[in-house]
Amino acid sequence: MTKRIVILGGGTGGTLTANRLHRHFKHHTLQGEHVEITVVDQDDHHIYQPGLLFVPFGLAHHQEIVRPRQAQLHKDIQFVLQPIDRVDTERDTVVLEDGRELAYDVLVIATGVGLATEETEGLTGPGWNERVFTFYDLAGATGLEAALAEFEGGKIVVNVVDMPIKCPVAPLEFCFLADWYFTERGIRDKVEITYATPLDGAFTKPVASAALTSLLAEKGVHLITEFNTGEVVGESVDGESPKLIGYDGREVPFDLAVVIPLHSGAAYVGRSEGLGDDLNFVPTDKRTLQTNAKPNVFAIGDATNVPASKAGSVTHFEGEVLVDNIIRFLDDKPLDSTFDGHANCFIETGFGKALLIDFNYETEPLPGHFPSALGMPLLKESRMNHLGKLMFQWVYWHALLQGRDIPGIGATMPERGKNHPESTSHDTEELTV
Asked: What is d(CA 29, CA 21) in angstroms, rounded to the nearest whole number?
């Protein structure tokens, strides 16, 4: 007998889940049954997402951050290169665009998010990829590199259209790196940088928001809050200056706009009855990572609706719990409700420094050190954090994707090394960033 595990998506979550499962079943039998693992994706281009931030500033290049998806999977894992039409949860079957069907005993949704640029009126109209860009895909990041190199002065606006987005600190990082970039070019005094966000602060929780707001001010970045973008107007025929337009009527003029569009889940989720919500995210138990669709359907990473950051670190920590629960499900054992929303993010601040934040569902980012009192400083700029961010790319390709544990860093958020002021410790309000 064979148990079939089908994983939709060959990105971070799908790859590390497949490799972790393969490693387990290579050494452990499932009641004498063989386990077959299949990963499905519509392309064979695995992008190291954090690297997209560095491309516009000439700090990373295409060949450094893109590798074949199949090459990241163990050779015994089957890889199917084909778009997905829909999931039929009643028949436990994935229907591919070419009509083929893949039956499964366990399904994992790991198809992440896409950019819903069409949802913002005017975004892809006049000026798109000329003076309006996004660095959230490779084409946009590459185009923005050329635009920044030619930029000699004026207004740059970095705008988050709406939440949630993947890597929610990246727009702030772009502002900080832009400050460094134009300083290095000797024209910082000719460039006005504005950060426009739909949030009521630079970030989502008081401690982190205060630190990041202070850093924006220190670097001369103007902050506009509660700005809900309604339109992006390119250069009009009557010569009016291009601008962002908010639903409340506010206007923010720009010479160059860096926009982070609305995000949504994969389109096939919307075509699969009972699988997703209105934005095609998959309703998922935030502790077990089992979906609401059916007990044998699980989800990981950006594809879920769990109230955690849509970041690679979260996906990594989820992977430990998810794989354990898939094994438990196949063994007819109760699932563990152990995922605590742990997120860990380096925030590049320019000039060879970075901040580090570490938090979970219940605890907001706090000062201190990670992963212990002798570790890297939290909520504080340091060279050590910058080097940690750079080193993570090697860790990503050679350890995280391969499903290996990182020594000293587990799925559960460490309490050691954190300063827990009485007013902010163990906040009962969930953190979503």
From this structure: 12
Domain ranges of the chain: 2-114+265-330, 117-263
Alpha-helical segments (H) within 251-311: 267-270
Task: Determine the Cα–Cα distance for residues 294 and 286; give it in Å rounded to an integer.
Answer: 15
Predicted pLDDT at 234: 62
The CATH number for 2-114+265-330, chosen from 3.90.700.10, 2.120.10.30, 3.90.550.10, 3.50.50.60, is: 3.50.50.60
35-39, 300-304, 373-377, 428-432: the lowest-pLDDT one: 428-432
Say whether 110 sits in a helix, a strand or coil: coil
Percent over 70 (pLDDT), the chain: 95
Report the candidate in 316, 376, 384 with the shortest Cα–Cα distance to residue 349: 384
For residue 273, how many other CB atoms are within 10 A of its CB?
12
- Tokens describing residue 254: 């720009």
- Residue 60: name the closest of 175, 169, 142 by CA: 142
| DSSP-derived 3-state class of residue 317 | helix
How do residues 227-280 score in pLDDT, each as one tens digit? 998 877 765 332 356 899 998 889 999 999 999 999 999 999 999 999 999 999
| E runs forming strands in 266-321 | 297-299
pLDDT at position 410, please? Answer: 86
State the distance between the two ends of the chain, measured CA to CA, in whole angstroms: 43
CA distance 293 to 93: 13
The pLDDT value recorded for residue 429 is: 39
Instruction: Give the pair of three-digit tokens for residue 372.
Output: 């212990």
Q: Which two structure tokens, joined as six digits, stand for 52?
A: 């997209």
What's the token pair of residue 260? 């982070």
Same fold, 2-114+265-330 and 117-263: yes
Residues 6+ positions from 274 with CB-CB distance below 8 Å: 89, 293, 294
pTM of the model: 0.93
**Residue 236 has what pLDDT?**
37
> What pLDDT digit, counting tens, does each position of 57-66 carry?
999 998 899 9
Closest CA to 396 of 8, 57, 50: 50
Question: Tokens representing 431?
Answer: 């953190």
Whole-angstrom CA distances from 59 to 13, 112, 396 are: 25, 25, 18
Strand segments (E) across 78-172: 78-81, 84-88, 93-96, 101-103, 106-109, 113-115, 132-133, 154-160
405 in Cβ contact with 280 (< 8 Å) = no
Cβ atoms of 416 and 373 within 8 Å: the answer is yes
